[in-house]
Amino acid sequence: MNHPASRVVPRAAAAAATTILLQISGAAFVYAILSAEEGWQVVALLGLLGFGFYLLERLPWINDVVVALLARVPVVTTATAAVIVLGFPFLVGSNTYILHLLIVAQLYAVLALALNFQLGSANIPNFATGASYGIGAYVSALLAVNFNVSFWLTLPVAALAATLFGFVIGIPCMRTRDTYLALVTIAFAVVVHQLLNNFEWTGGPNGLVGIPAPTLFGHSFADPIEVFGWTLPSQANFYYLAAAVVIIAVITARRLHESHIGLAWNALRADEMAAKAQGINVAWYKVLAFAVDAFLAAFAGTIYAFYVSYISPDNFTFLVSVTIMTMVIVGGMDNIFGVIVGAFLLTILPEKLRAFSDYRLLIFGVIVIGFLMIRPEGLFPQRLRHYGVER
Amino acid sequence: MLELADVDTAYGAAPMLRNVTLNVRAGELVCLLGPNGAGKTTTFMTACGVVRAQRGKVRVMGNDVAALGTEKLAALGVGLVPEGRRLFPGLTVIENLRLGYDAVSNRGPKFDLQLDKMSNLFPRIRERLRQTAGTLSGGEQAMVALARALIGEPKLVIMDEPSLGLSPKLIGEYFEITQEIHRRGTTVLLIEQNAEMGLRIADRGYILVKGRVAQEGPARELLSSKTAKSLYL
After folding, report:
1. Separation CA A73–CA A373 (nearest Å)
2. Count of alpha carbons within 13 Å of B183, Cβ hemisphere only?
3. Cα separation of B231 and B209, whole Å?
4. What is the rounded distance in angstroms from the CA atom of residue B121 to the CA atom of residue B77?
5. Which pLDDT value is given to residue B112?
6. Which residue among A47, A151, A161, B221 is least packed, with the fewest CB closer than 10 Å?
7. Within chain B, which residues score under 50 in pLDDT?
8. How many Å lie between the alpha carbon of A263 and the closest alpha carbon of chain B?
9. A6 — contact with chain B (CB < 8 Å)?
10. Residue A361 in domain
11. Given CB atoms, is A333 within the 8 Å cutoff of chain B?
């Protein structure tokens, strides 16, 4: 085989060094774009990113080589990623704005991963992920505000409540497909938003205020973190919490993708009748996709509610679902890494384009279209699975 | 193994099958023939529960297909090869085969063994395992569709016009493989337009005309029958 990826069979030490360098370069790029203040800096960095994706499109073997390198030394890859994630707040220092952006980006990464089970794996256009996100936020906030329930207890309860909601949406969706299915989910999203707006016990349009900060072993998340003489701002608590949930979401997504469930979702995405012929219970797998989506979205919602300490129905509109959907499409459907990149890019970009004031959203739209023109199948398209003899 | 008894099927107000009775016994290779629009694919759809019979009974291995549902057939040991192959084009050949394997057994370690068997039976697909199914040639797709149905070692295989769009050489190869799997003990219902080739390898045959069974009998008799000749030969 003369494929470039197979030619590069690096020795472990070389692979480890390259892997570390690659990941540090990636982190440095994220830091650079987060710290960029001037319009020209943002444009230059986006140009660099665009050029990188252009190269990936023209020379797809680069992607294979990088994947092969990372897979060659999985322990080094994981350890480097862990060090970067743990160390990022130290690098950011007292810049709470960057930490805030990273928290929101991570929460959106969880939401995008949640939707990816449906849109990416099974081609189910669910516009109600924002609603599940809202249900998670409201259930946990109501429990904490009214009954003084600990954050750690509200987390699973909110996830279960949202999962139940996922099943409820899933049932009418069993018999619908494509556009009709999308309409059903839009209806659910609008209904949830309206109910949150109109119920008295949810605070109506005023929302819920005074959601207490979580505590862990006596440490309040409202307090700064003191570690080895360093003081990290209080936002760092939520940064690490959100990072932990991203890791849980990635592990869940990976395990499901590699399992029969992931393959079954891919099959029904292509052809429901053929999927049935392969013994796949199409209705059940659709409902399952809704439930998993809602479960993870509720985790993100709960953390969001406790992070901002105030939520209102406007945080969970139909537009939130559209944003999450755009992240999945731009990042790369059914590609876990791609979806996370999409979430980060689309969270950070509008903030960084503030330098262009009135033209901000226009430029944002043009950039998204530009990326899709460079990489029509998403920044990182779906990857192939490996089985048995080919391992 | 498969029994259609007095079956009527319709698409809305348009009747498709009328009073169709068809039996496939264990170990047989039965060929269902018919011209375009005769109702062959409808028979396939009805036999595997995708289309519900308005009247009559459809049983697979003694189970009522309407009550069972299409997705339960694979676990019973029924391999389906639908018209047009209906592979999952974005998935690799190996993923397509894995789905076929999981449908029946869902026992991980044996998959490699079964994959080897399929690679030996279909040498054409051996080199294509990592390729997405949508990028294969028509002939290769036909082989993968059959391999997907066979990888779980089904007791019964129902094939709907598998030779459609294949070159004469490939049709020959395909029918040889079909004959081989039948020789190994698999029961086959082959739904075909290619009457001569189909009847040459079949034990028995049915000729469907305008949604009704016009003739049935041993394959050799059908080969020389007037109905078959007037329609095909």
Report:
1. 33
2. 7
3. 9
4. 19
5. 85
6. A47
7. none
8. 7
9. no
10. no
11. no
Say what angle helices A336-352 and A318-331 make with each other, to 10 degrees. Answer: 120
Q: Is residue B141 part of a domain?
A: no
CATH number for position B208: 3.40.50.300
Query: Is the CB of residue A143 less than 8 Å from the CB of residue A162?
Result: no
- B163, part of any domain: yes
Q: What is the distance in angstroms between the Cα of B195 and the nearest Cα belonging to chain A?
A: 26
Sort residue B62 into left (φ over 0), alpha (ψ -120 to 50) or beta.
Answer: left
Q: Closest-CA residue in chain A for B51?
A: A273
The first and second tokens of residue B61, run together, are: 């291995």
Mutation target vs A (from B42, B85, B94; most A CBs, 10 A cutoff): B94
Q: Does A366 touch chain B (CB under 8 A)?
A: no
- Residues ≥6 apart with Cβ < 8 Å to B157: B78, B79, B80, B81, B149, B150, B181, B186, B187, B188, B189
Alpha-carbon gap, residue B135 to B124, rounded angstroms: 14
CB within 8 Å of A222: residues ≥ 6 apart = A213, A234
- A84-88 contacts at long range (C-beta below 8 A, 24 or more positions apart): A84/A23, A84/A24, A84/A27, A85/A243, A86/A240, A88/A27, A88/A31, A88/A239
Q: Would the CB atoms of B72 and A279 count as touching at under 8 Å?
A: yes
Give the global pTM.
0.88
Choose from B96, B99, B110, B117 for mutation: most chain A CBs within 10 A: B99
Closest to A279 (Cβ–Cβ): which among B95, B103, B111?
A: B103
| Residue numbers in A near B130 (CB within 8 A) | 384, 390
Q: Give the pLDDT confidence score for residue B93 in this predicted structure.
A: 93
Cβ distance A263 to B99 less than 8 Å, yes or no, reads: yes
Asked if B232 reaches chain A (Cβ–Cβ under 8 Å), the answer is no
Asked whether the beta carbons of A34 and A102 are under 8 A apart, the reply is yes
B110 in contact with A at a CB cutoff of 8 Å? no
What whole-number percentage of chain A has pLDDT above 90?
Answer: 64
How many structural domains are present in chain A? 1
Name residue, tokens 């052809």.
A271
- Asked whether residue A187 is assigned to any structural domain, the reply reads yes
- Is B22 contained in some domain? yes
In chain A, which residues have their Cβ closer than 8 Å to the Cβ of B95?
Answer: 263, 266, 384-385, 387
Residue A177 lies inside a defined structural domain of this protein: yes
In a domain, A147, yes or no: yes
pLDDT at residue A391 is higher than 50? no
Structure tokens at A42: 């943002």
Residue of A nearest to B81 (CA): A277
How wide is the angle at C-alpha A169 spanned by C-alphas A163 and A174, nearest 5°? 115
* CATH number of the domain that residue A343 is part of: 1.10.3470
In a domain, B114, yes or no: no
Facing A271 at nearest CB: one of B88, B95, B100: B88
**3-state DSSP call for residue B57?**
strand
- Expressed as residue numbers, the domain containing B4 is 1-68+159-167+189-233
Q: How many domains does chain B have?
A: 1
The pLDDT, as a whole number, for residue B109 is 55
Domain of residue A172: give its range.
Answer: 94-352
Contact A280 B103 (CB under 8 A): yes
CA atoms of A340 and B196, how far apart (whole Å): 57
What average pLDDT does chain B have?
87
